[in-house]
């Protein structure tokens, strides 16, 4: 599993950092972010790129997404 830690980055940086991993076709990606505004964009980009959000959790301000290629 590839891990992408974009905590501390503001929109749209988390999505811009995620896109190359999705384009590369990684089978499973763990995304850690702290920008709540990015969560909808991460879910949308994942879906549009052929990925499912397998899990999503929150710990304080931090969000964790597990994305799997559909």
From TrEMBL:
Keyword terms of this UniProt record: Transferase
Identify the SUPFAM superfamilies for this entry.
SirA-like (SSF64307)
Asked if the Swiss-Prot or TrEMBL record annotates the protein with the keyword Transferase, the reply is: yes
Q: Which InterPro entries match?
A: TusA-like, TusA-like_sf
Keyword NADP appears in the UniProt entry: no
The UPF0033 domain sits at 3-69
A molecular-function term among this protein's GO annotations: transferase activity
One Pfam family from the record: TusA
State the protein's name: Sulfurtransferase TusA family protein
State the organism of origin.
Helicobacter ganmani
């Amino acid at each position: 599993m590839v891990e992408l830690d974009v905590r501390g980055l503001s929109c749209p940086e988390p999505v811009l950092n995620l896109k190359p991993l999705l384009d590369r076709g990684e089978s499973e990606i763990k995304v850690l972010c702290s920008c709540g505004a990015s969560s909808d964009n991460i879910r949308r980009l994942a879906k549009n790129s052929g990925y499912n959000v397998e899990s999503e959790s929150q710990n304080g301000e931090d969000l964790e997404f597990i994305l799997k290629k559909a």
